[in-house]
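Table S2 (continued). Query chain:
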Amino acid sequence: MYKEDIEGSIAHSSMLCAQGIISPDDLAEIVDGLNAIKSEIESGALEIDPNSEDIHTFVEGELTKRIGSAGKRLHTARSRNDQVALDIRLYLRKECDSVYALITDLIKVLCEKSEKYSDAVMPGYTHMQRAQPITFGHHLLAYAEMLLRDRDRLKDAKARMNYCPLGSCALAGTTYNIDRNMTSEALGFTAPMSNSLDGVSDRDFCMELASVLSILMVHLSRFSEEIILWCSWEFKFVELDDAFSTGSSIMPQKKNPDITELIRGKTGRVFGDLTTLLTMMKGLPLAYNKDMQEDKEAIFDAFDTVKICLTTFIPMLDTMTALPDNMRKAAAGGFINATDCADYLVGKGLPFRDAYKATGEIVALCIKKGLTLETLPLEEYQKICNLFDNGVYDAINLDKCVNGRTSLGGPAPQNVLKEAKRIKQLLKE
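Corresponding output:
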């Protein structure tokens, strides 16, 4: 966090000068020295000393070595407690922006894919059983909705985190006449934190962000699980690009969806980071305790893991090939138009529960005869219910079943296109 530490130190020293606590000459030396240290770390000319107690002491020690007594004045009206609380907020604020952008990119790919496959009929499932006809585009947009919520949660968590602890000092503020509003504004915070004890001991933002990232990983893991299923010969709904698959070491026919399996596995790692943070904080009295230095390893790992998963998921999905013919074949063989058959009878005046019972008998008959609803002769329909006529075949047509589901949120192709357009516009805004 050397960048954030130096950024906070420059804002702090500028405030000290404005308040008459240090001189303009001292400020100039401090700022020039800090900028030089930052540039040299970035270029590799200056290596961070691993023997230093922490990044704060390293930067301050290096500064003092270079500019003398002016460097010793930098830490006036400040503690490492509020310094580290500041640095981690500055760092995580940038990480939030990075993940937010990646989520946005993934949603864009989902919208583009959903438009391309807005009319690709596939079975929708409940309990992993074929249930009702939907479209592949509609299925993809379900994940777009989840990711939109993830984006909102991340934005909200960042907003709650965006309060400045600098000036809380060790735990009880300071007797110096500091201007906390000045440093808060200079660093882009909403306002200073209102309680100095809370300022140095709060890690709610770490727990909240880890929770947000855990929910995001749940969604990526669920999606990964479906892609794994869809790639199997039992489904064969999609094919992944070779760049995101591997072969077996002994079975030449196999093409394993390794990336999705790795993402599914990485989910537990982020859950573990959240558990670490919750456990770390649950027994700590106010104010700062050394246990809290464990926050960084956990929250940094959570962000690193999520970023590498998203960075991989986006091109994997973008290059994924759908196989609509296989999807439609699966849809045709699972009696997923049975509800539409029952609705047809309801349209003839039969109460839904009676229509449901009659359709169940018809499905059982089809299974016994090795037929589908589409191939069962009309006379067999009429043996069970005399309200059936030739119109039933139009009612149970898969395309009509899907196209007719125009209720808000339904899978009709026109709905999919409209929803994809709405989401893309939302992303632009």
